[in-house]
Amino acid sequence: MAKLNPYLSFKDQAKDALEFYQSVLGGELNISTFGDMPGMPGVPEDEGSLVMHGQLETSGGLTLMASDTGSMMPYVAPTSGVTVALTGGPADLDSIRGAYQSLAEGATETLPFELAPWGDYYGQLTDRFGVSWMFDVGTE
Protein backbone atom coordinates (compact mmCIF):
# COMPACT_ATOMS: atom_id res chain seq x y z
CA MET A 1 0.00 0.00 0.00
CA ALA A 2 1.28 3.48 -0.83
CA LYS A 3 2.01 5.90 2.01
CA LEU A 4 2.14 9.67 2.07
CA ASN A 5 4.86 10.94 4.43
CA PRO A 6 6.23 14.34 5.39
CA TYR A 7 9.76 14.92 4.08
CA LEU A 8 11.42 17.87 5.79
CA SER A 9 14.26 19.85 4.28
CA PHE A 10 16.91 21.52 6.44
CA LYS A 11 20.01 23.53 5.64
CA ASP A 12 22.17 21.65 8.16
CA GLN A 13 20.01 20.66 11.17
CA ALA A 14 18.32 17.45 10.00
CA LYS A 15 20.18 15.19 12.47
CA ASP A 16 19.38 17.39 15.47
CA ALA A 17 15.76 17.75 14.37
CA LEU A 18 15.27 14.02 13.75
CA GLU A 19 16.82 13.13 17.11
CA PHE A 20 14.53 15.66 18.80
CA TYR A 21 11.47 14.24 17.00
CA GLN A 22 12.55 10.74 18.05
CA SER A 23 12.72 11.91 21.69
CA VAL A 24 9.15 13.20 21.34
CA LEU A 25 7.53 10.50 19.20
CA GLY A 26 9.72 7.48 19.97
CA GLY A 27 10.52 4.98 17.26
CA GLU A 28 13.52 3.84 15.26
CA LEU A 29 15.72 6.40 13.56
CA ASN A 30 17.95 5.62 10.59
CA ILE A 31 20.30 8.28 9.23
CA SER A 32 22.57 8.15 6.18
CA THR A 33 25.04 10.97 5.68
CA PHE A 34 26.62 12.21 2.49
CA GLY A 35 29.89 10.90 3.90
CA ASP A 36 28.42 7.39 4.01
CA MET A 37 28.35 7.47 0.20
CA PRO A 38 31.99 7.85 -0.88
CA GLY A 39 32.55 9.65 -4.13
CA MET A 40 29.15 11.35 -4.13
CA PRO A 41 29.56 14.01 -6.85
CA GLY A 42 29.58 17.65 -5.79
CA VAL A 43 29.70 17.04 -2.03
CA PRO A 44 32.45 19.06 -0.35
CA GLU A 45 34.53 17.02 2.11
CA ASP A 46 33.54 19.22 5.07
CA GLU A 47 29.83 18.49 4.44
CA GLY A 48 30.11 14.71 4.71
CA SER A 49 28.35 14.70 8.09
CA LEU A 50 25.20 16.28 6.63
CA VAL A 51 22.14 14.04 6.41
CA MET A 52 21.51 12.67 2.93
CA HIS A 53 18.39 10.83 4.17
CA GLY A 54 16.94 10.31 7.61
CA GLN A 55 13.84 8.33 8.47
CA LEU A 56 11.99 8.00 11.76
CA GLU A 57 9.53 5.08 12.02
CA THR A 58 7.35 5.02 15.12
CA SER A 59 5.63 2.01 16.63
CA GLY A 60 2.31 3.75 15.95
CA GLY A 61 2.94 3.67 12.19
CA LEU A 62 4.11 7.25 11.74
CA THR A 63 6.95 7.95 9.31
CA LEU A 64 8.87 11.22 9.22
CA MET A 65 11.73 11.77 6.79
CA ALA A 66 14.27 14.59 6.46
CA SER A 67 17.53 15.61 4.83
CA ASP A 68 20.05 18.43 4.81
CA THR A 69 20.79 20.65 1.85
CA GLY A 70 24.50 21.22 1.55
CA SER A 71 26.18 23.82 -0.61
CA MET A 72 25.86 21.47 -3.59
CA MET A 73 22.12 22.21 -3.90
CA PRO A 74 19.90 25.27 -3.54
CA TYR A 75 18.16 25.35 -0.16
CA VAL A 76 14.42 25.95 -0.07
CA ALA A 77 13.13 26.84 3.40
CA PRO A 78 9.84 25.39 4.69
CA THR A 79 6.76 27.30 3.57
CA SER A 80 4.63 29.33 5.93
CA GLY A 81 1.78 26.78 5.86
CA VAL A 82 1.42 23.63 7.93
CA THR A 83 4.29 21.27 7.19
CA VAL A 84 3.37 18.32 9.45
CA ALA A 85 -0.09 17.36 10.71
CA LEU A 86 -0.36 14.95 13.64
CA THR A 87 -3.95 13.79 13.92
CA GLY A 88 -5.95 11.05 15.59
CA GLY A 89 -9.07 9.99 17.39
CA PRO A 90 -10.13 9.93 21.05
CA ALA A 91 -7.73 7.10 21.94
CA ASP A 92 -4.79 9.23 20.70
CA LEU A 93 -5.52 12.31 22.83
CA ASP A 94 -2.90 11.70 25.53
CA SER A 95 -0.08 10.83 23.10
CA ILE A 96 -0.83 13.76 20.77
CA ARG A 97 -1.16 16.16 23.72
CA GLY A 98 2.21 14.89 24.97
CA ALA A 99 3.78 15.38 21.53
CA TYR A 100 2.44 18.94 21.40
CA GLN A 101 3.82 19.72 24.86
CA SER A 102 7.24 18.27 24.03
CA LEU A 103 7.48 19.95 20.63
CA ALA A 104 6.46 23.25 22.24
CA GLU A 105 9.85 23.39 24.01
CA GLY A 106 11.63 26.28 22.28
CA ALA A 107 8.74 26.64 19.82
CA THR A 108 6.46 29.49 18.86
CA GLU A 109 2.92 28.54 19.74
CA THR A 110 0.35 29.71 17.22
CA LEU A 111 -2.68 28.14 18.90
CA PRO A 112 -2.59 26.28 22.21
CA PHE A 113 -3.68 22.64 22.12
CA GLU A 114 -7.17 22.77 23.59
CA LEU A 115 -10.78 21.97 22.86
CA ALA A 116 -11.79 23.97 19.79
CA PRO A 117 -15.26 25.38 19.05
CA TRP A 118 -15.91 22.64 16.46
CA GLY A 119 -15.39 19.91 19.05
CA ASP A 120 -11.89 18.60 18.29
CA TYR A 121 -8.77 19.20 20.34
CA TYR A 122 -6.62 21.41 18.13
CA GLY A 123 -3.35 23.33 18.27
CA GLN A 124 -0.57 24.72 16.10
CA LEU A 125 3.07 25.61 16.66
CA THR A 126 6.32 26.23 14.85
CA ASP A 127 9.02 24.14 16.47
CA ARG A 128 12.54 25.28 17.32
CA PHE A 129 13.74 24.10 13.89
CA GLY A 130 11.22 26.30 12.04
CA VAL A 131 8.88 23.44 11.12
CA SER A 132 5.17 24.20 11.47
CA TRP A 133 2.95 21.55 13.06
CA MET A 134 -0.81 21.12 13.32
CA PHE A 135 -2.38 18.82 15.93
CA ASP A 136 -5.98 17.64 15.74
CA VAL A 137 -7.74 14.98 17.80
CA GLY A 138 -11.33 14.17 17.01
CA THR A 139 -13.67 13.54 19.91
CA GLU A 140 -16.46 10.98 20.12
State the helix count: 2
Average pLDDT value?
91
Largest sheet: 4 strands, mixed
Strand order across the largest sheet: 1-4-3-2
In CATH terms, what is the architecture of the largest domain? Answer: Roll
User: Helicity, in percent?
Assistant: 10-25%
Number of domains: 2
Proportion of residues in extended strands: 25-35%
State the CATH superfamily name of the largest domain: 2,3-Dihydroxybiphenyl 1,2-Dioxygenase, domain 1
Distance between the termini: 28 Å
Which descriptor suits the 3D outline? elongated
Question: How large is the radius of gyration?
Answer: 16 Å
Topology as H/E string? EHEEEEHEEE
Number of strands: 8
What are the segments in which pLDDT stays under 50 over at least 5 consecutive residues?
none
CATH topology of the largest domain: 2,3-Dihydroxybiphenyl 1,2-Dioxygenase, domain 1
Structural class: alpha/beta
CATH top level class name of the largest domain: Alpha Beta
InterPro entries: Glyas_Bleomycin-R_OHBP_Dase, PhnB-like
Protein name: VOC family protein
Pfam families: 3-dmu-9_3-mt
Can you tag this structure with a few keywords?
140 residues, alpha/beta, 2,3-Dihydroxybiphenyl 1,2-Dioxygenase, domain 1, 2 domains, 4-stranded mixed sheet, 2 helices, elongated
Walk me through the structure.
Residues 3-133 form the PhnB-like domain. InterPro entries: Glyas_Bleomycin-R_OHBP_Dase, PhnB-like. This is VOC family protein. It holds the Pfam family 3-dmu-9_3-mt. The protein is α/β, with parallel strands linked by helices and 140 residues long. 16% of the residues lie in helices and 34% in strands. The chain is built from two helices and eight strands. The relative contact order is 0.19.
